[in-house]
Amino acid sequence: MVMALAVIAAAGFFLCLAPASLNACPASPAPNASYTTIYSIPNGCEQSSCDYFLAARLNDADPTYLDFWLEGNADGWIAVGFSATPLMANSDVLACALDSNNDNTAVAIDAWNGPGNSNTRDTQQDLCPNVLEYTGGRFMCSFSRAINTGDPNGQDLQLDDNLFLLLGTGSNPSTANPPALTIHTVTPLSSSSMLNVVSRAFESDYRVFARIPAGCERSLCTYYLAVRTNPDDPDTLDFELEGDAQSWIAIGLSKTASMESADVSGCVVQA
Q1: How far apart are CA 138 and CA 158, in angstroms?
Q2: In sequence order, what are the residues at sequence separation of 6 or more whose Cβ sits closer than 8 angstroms to the Cβ of residue 221?
Q3: pLDDT tens, residue by residue, 32-52
Q4: What is the pTM of this model?
Q5: Which residues of 1-30 are buried (b: 16+ CB within 10 A; e: fewer)?
């Protein structure tokens, strides 16, 4: 019997993500895994015909990791940068590049731009390669990276922050060993506003039931609730609660619009 339930939402919570283990790679996403489109150029293009395509999802095996999909036409590299400003300086860069030293194969590169926009390959490579293909001048690449790497080197930003996205390609293959990013021939495009890529990725397979205020961007909501059927056990529901609070956040399920006799689940700040 399917029972209609009223949702009783209470303010007082946060999103809890455990820090990822450094150098530990999660299981690769399935070949038919569903991704959420973050950016496509031209806007609204079919993935296979986009000049630039970026999508992301939470890794099924370890949700402290994001799986990225980068695809597009370029002769040297394709990349996404994350920055506190719409400028390249001090940005965190994730890329797929052509390695001219190794039979023109594609490689994943973890890099960063310093104050003077100079690009530097990270000493510690925090990307976990999944799919690295380069065919007919087109990159099709998937890699995973921890939302918070804990890497003290380079410019690894926490990807659950609100950040500008820098979308770029380069025409010249790397001749360095190991491969690095060459100077771009066209200045990378910047997103028109900050966004939270983790929030976007969360929405790939969760159904949103509540946003307060209505229509808010997840990272800016005072209360956010999303639910999905667990992919490994269809009799189990996964809940995502996020919001601003000092001590707790909760969701109540009730046969009436009253709190009385409600079934309550929540997340509490541990003293």
Answers
A1: 29
A2: 211, 212, 213, 242, 243
A3: 888 988 999 998 899 999 999
A4: 0.70
A5: eeeeeeebbbebbbbeeeebeeeebbebbe
